[in-house]
Amino acid sequence: MKICVITGTRAEYGLLKKLMLGIKKEKKFKLCILVTGAHLSRKFGNTYRDIVKDGFKISRKIYINPNSDTSSGIVKSISSGMEGFVNAYKKLNPNLLLVLGDRHEIFSAVIAAHFSRIPIAHLHGGEATKGSTDEAIRHSITKMSHFHFVAAKEYKKKVVQLGENPRQVFNVGGLGVDNIRHTNLLSKGELESDLGLKFKKKNLLINFHPETLNKSSTKKIFNEILLALGKEADHTCLIFTMPNADLESGIIFKMIKKFVKKNKNSYFFRSLGSLRFLSCLNCVDGMIGNSSSGLLEMPSFKKGTINVGDRQKGRLEASSVINVKANRREITRGINILYNSKFQSRIKKTKNPYGNGGANKKIIKILKRIKLKNIIKKHFYIKNFNDV
């Protein structure tokens, strides 16, 4: 079976990497990799190089315009992506397309596969992000997919609710949890040397993306975060990661650079890569922002997440997540809770709702037994959801 994996961002590749290695090792499978989106952008760190360094051969590069952060620019990127993916499928002739998540470049790849009559396996479907355009894209991908690997029982119910046959929906847990279990993390000293930073008594990771469905401007929301962080900058190491290629992401880029220039204990990175990012999660005291990693991965480290605004609203979350509104007083309140001794004591018992690992092995095992014959013709499934 020739399995074609699509990746467009550093975060997505970090989740897919170990699964790709597993597919590559299996004699039953032939792996092909299509790289697109921010991976091919200098602005986002040319992260396709990390894929090559990890020993993978890139089958095709699908160029879109990830640097545009306007509505019209993203629509044009989807359009050019569909054309590029259709041409790649004609050359590669894959038996199965494997995609993760909900981004617009993945959407274009799935639309192209749908009209090319290629079966699709979707990872991390059924989840909710009410403050982002990703919500509608994710469910649209679900409807065009034939196999579903979800991260929790609740998400399986939602996928079935969309009319998908539960026999084709597999609860395997979160890929991020699995990666944490099987990664030899760097120590604080190694990170300091590798990244050229100096940890302080207090250390925070800031990972913020635009709220693409919020009427408030990205600039206004992120400025509230920076105003709260300004009070911490003198005595706290602040590590910023750059946002995804979303609407208005360029605004956040500029604001981070300006803040870091003014505050000596602050650092920013275009891309940390999976190893350094997970190591940062392990070494810092907590995360501030609205990244899915704060809900999916951070709880496994028994560390707090200050989840700002509505972008991740609707996702399952652990007791380590502190939800705050997008204003400086609420964010400051969240920081105070994070460092409160009672909270620190409580999160030691935190359980990650996305499981304890093993997702990659489960997916490989299922892929080895699935049948592709006649899978393209789907039926809308109706059932009592309590039976799922």
Report a brief summary of the structure.
The protein is built from 15 helices and 13 strands. It is an alpha/beta fold and 388 residues long. It has two domains: 193 residues, Rossmann fold (3-Layer(aba) Sandwich); 162 residues, Glycogen Phosphorylase B (Rossmann fold).
Describe the structure.
This protein is of the alpha/beta class and 388 residues long. The chain has 2 domains: 2-173 and 358-378, Glycogen Phosphorylase B (Rossmann fold), CATH 3.40.50; 188-349, Glycogen Phosphorylase B (Rossmann fold), CATH 3.40.50.2000. The protein contains 15 helices and 13 strands. It has helices spanning 10-25, 48-53, 71-92, 104-115, 134-144, 153-161, 175-181, 188-195, 218-230, 249-262, 273-283, 293-296, 328-338, 341-346, 359-369, and strands spanning 2-7, 30-36, 60-62, 96-100, 120-123, 147-150, 169-171, 202-207, 236-241, 266-269, 286-289, 304-308, 321-324. A 7-stranded parallel beta sheet has the order 3-2-1-4-5-6-7, sandwiched between helices. Helix 1 crosses helix 15 (359-369) and helix 4 (104-115) packs parallel to helix 5. The longest helix has 22 residues, at 71-92. The mean pLDDT is 92.
How do the helices and strands line up, and which of them pair or pack?
Blueprint: E1 2-7, H1 10-25, E2 30-36, H2 48-53, E3 60-62, H3 71-92, E4 96-100, H4 104-115, E5 120-123, H5 134-144, E6 147-150, H6 153-161, E7 169-171, H7 175-181, H8 188-195, E8 202-207, H9 218-230, E9 236-241, H10 249-262, E10 266-269, H11 273-283, E11 286-289, H12 293-296, E12 304-308, E13 321-324, H13 328-338, H14 341-346, H15 359-369
Helix pairs in contact: 1-15, 3-4, 4-5, 9-10, 9-13
